[in-house]
Design brief:
The protein has 131 residues and is α+β, with helices and mostly antiparallel strands. The protein has two domains: 89 residues, no CATH class; 39 residues, no CATH class. The chain has four helices and four strands. A two-stranded antiparallel ribbon has the order 1-2. A two-stranded antiparallel ribbon has the order 3-4. α2 packs antiparallel against α3. The longest helix is centred in the middle third of the chain and has 30 residues.
Length: 131
């Protein structure tokens, strides 16, 4: 039986991060639908599951890979923002954080040095700030 499934999946996309996200989103909609009992949520859940399984069994691997890359880029933008916030929160006593007025890059300087001249590593813009 395992061998039949293995042969069936040869040349197919398989489960990637985006299809797993769709499956978990469908599970979340199912849980919400247990309390709300809505036909719209049932249809949404069914659509998410169908979309997920169509991606898993698809033979158009380059297209599925491109979709997965777009999903990962979007996910990184969201998770990267929050991980940057947690890093700055942990380092708030030792460092001050400023945005470069030229390129908007986040810069970290030591606290308690008074008024210092900060030079951006990304664009080379220099400005003065109090730490």
């Amino acid at each position: 039986m395992k061998e039949k499934i293995y042969r069936f999946m040869i040349g197919r996309n398989g489960a990637d991060q985006f299809s797993r996200f769709l499956s978990f989103a469908a599970l979340g909609v199912i849980v919400v639908n247990l309390f709300v009992r809505s036909a719209v949520l049932s249809a949404l859940c069914l659509a998410l599951l169908i979309w997920s399984y169509c991606r898993v069994f698809s033979r158009n691997i380059p297209r599925r890979r491109a979709e997965n890359e777009r999903y990962l880029a979007l996910r990184y933008r969201v998770t990267g923002y929050f991980s940057g916030l947690t890093d700055r929160w942990k380092q708030r006593r030792d460092f001050a954080f400023f945005r470069c007025p030229g390129c908007k890059a986040m810069l970290r300087v030591p606290r308690g040095k008074g008024k210092i001249r900060v030079t951006c590593r990304k664009c080379g813009n220099a400005f003065e700030r109090k730490t």
